[in-house]
Design brief:
With about 475 residues, the protein is an alpha/beta fold. It is about 40% helix and about 15% strand. Bound molecules: glutamine.
Amino acid sequence: MTAWKSINDIANDVQTGAVSALSLVNQALETIETNQQFNAIIATLANRARERAKQIDDRVKAGEAIGRLAGVPFIAKDNFLVFGAETTAASNILKGFNAPYQATAINRLEAEGAICVAKANLDAFAHGSSTENSDFGTTLNPRDPTRVPGGSSGGSAAAVALTMAPFALGTDTGGSIRLPASFTGIVGYKPTYGLVSRSGVVAMASSTDVIGPLARTVEDAALVLDVMAGRDDLDGTTIERDTADYSAFSGAIKGRKVGVVKEYMGEGLEPGVRKSIEQAIDQLKRAGAEIIEVSLPSLPAALAVYYIICPAEVSSNLSRYDGQRYGYSFKEAKSLDDSYGKSRSIGFGKEAKRRIMIGTYVLSSGYYDAYYKKAQTVRTKLINEFDSALAEVDFLIGPTAPSVAFKIGANTADPLQMYLADILTVAANLVGVPSISLPAAESQNLPVGLQIMAKQRHDRDLLAFAKLAEGIIK
Ligand code: GLN
């Protein structure tokens, strides 16, 4: 396996001419090629990537400053609009769709010299926790190919774990960056809602969707965030970024108040995961953190709330795929109505249809009060509980997932069982707070993720603390 230096060092090497951007792109493409059996990648952008690398190398020779990510290869989840390959969101209904514009996040990374080399596999439309919902087949976990890599950004996580690139982009609507990071032993960062523009990213549930990096270290993740963060006129939900750099770390563990979420350490946790998280908590305590038990009484309702609000928003966001504007269209349609119906029923997979049906049901006039409205009320309660807890402590911690990576096929027959994989991640999305998954001590020889959350807009503080924690929890 080929290893990568830190993103900072790679960019320095390219800028000083010590290595060429082209050799880095070739290294990434070769690593993708030799690991095809993991099915982490949907498409490569070989031509465009090599062309951009050559331009960067020429500019370096001409003495130009390239940027903070000079020549750094990366991989984007296939729900980002990127030039040079189709954007399918791993769904048959989008096969053949070439984006007419690029995602803001991609443009910002490219402006600093980064080079997108490939599009990663995912659960179709990011609906799922294992990549088993992909119309391109399941991604295998690099640590044990009989297991899932988590989802929905499973391809992005596997790609980083397989060292195909130093970092990848994912989206996190209910845990899709953190869960696969946890299952593959890497770092996954979900920023504060609104911190990174979602323009040019296929929408799932717009009130919780965020995008973020998957990387091997907190430092790399923070640098990538720093390049992407901040307001964008093309996404009205974006917020002002910090004036200081997200990768300018400061502070110490000593004296920080860390709330262990009681509801996250309860029944249903795999014993090995519990042990690993308890050990991490102990290590933080020995490093001087003040450990306090915190209770968020509405947390047990979070999963139910998420699986009402998320499908409601999905049912609305997926209505644009009508067979007329993007991707697949049923050719032998007898009328426009027939074309809408057949294009959607052939193009969408089972999980998208399930969510459209649930979402339409909970929004229907007869059931709106009983489901959607009630879910939004509990969501507000949850927000208030997080606000009060985070007024008492600096960070909330617990496991990222209740188990290590599960076996392929173990949860596919029972959607509820699959949804339970998200039980510890969805709350951060509903509330909008930043959350990171860090590799903790392994269990059964498989990775375990420690989840740390902070107040909205406290991304820099969270990343600085996570970097310190990263150094001591393994
Ligand atoms: N697994 C969750 C779901 O299926 C979260 C997905 C995501 O974050 N994109 O909805």
